[in-house]
Amino acid sequence: MKRNSIAKHALSVAGMAGLLSLAAVMPASAHVGAGSVDTFSHGFLHPFNGLDHILAMVAVGLYAANLGGRALWLVPSAFIGTMVVGGLLGYYGWPLPMVEAGIALSVIVMGMAIALGVRLPTIAAMALVGVFALFHGHAHGNEGAGLGIAFLPYAAGFIVATGVLHISGIALGAAFDRFGTLSVSLNRFAGCVGLIAGISLFAGLLTA
Hints:
By secondary structure, the protein is an all-alpha fold.
C-alpha cells in the first residue's frame, strides 16, 4: 500500500512537469500544413507531423480501450468513417465553421473524458468522436480540392495512419491495465496531458 502511494505521488510530480513542458512547446495552430497531398506516403506521415492529430487519434483509441467491449472497435471505426465524410465535404467545398477550433476542442474534450473517467454508452461515444472526426476530415479534404484522383493515395495514407494511431491508443490502454489499480492514475495523467495540450492549442488560435 505504501509503495503504491509513493508511486502515485511520483506520477503526480512527473505529470506536472510533463504538462508544463508540453504547454510551453505547443504550436500556436491546431492544424499543421499538409504540404504535398498527392502520395500515399505524404498522407500516411501527415498525422504524425501534428501533435493535435496524434493526441486526438490516440485519445480515441485509449478512450475506446477504457470503455471496452464493442466500443473497442466501434468507437475508432466511427471516427474513421465520419472523418471520411468530413473529408468529402471539404473536398467538394461544403463549408464547415470553426474547423481549427473543432480540432483543438477534440483534444480538450477527449482528454477531459479520459482524465475524469467518463464512461459514455457506446452509441454516445461514437457520436462524440464522430462530431470531432468531421473537423479533422474536413481540414484535409479541403486541401485536396481540385486534385481529382491524384488525391486518393494521400487520403488512403491518412486513413491508414489514423487507424495506426487508434490502435496505438488501444495498446496504451492495455498497457495501463497491466498496472492494476495504478492504471486509473495513468489514465488520468494521459487525459490531463491531452487536456492541457488542447487548451494550449485553443489559446493559440485565439491569440493568432
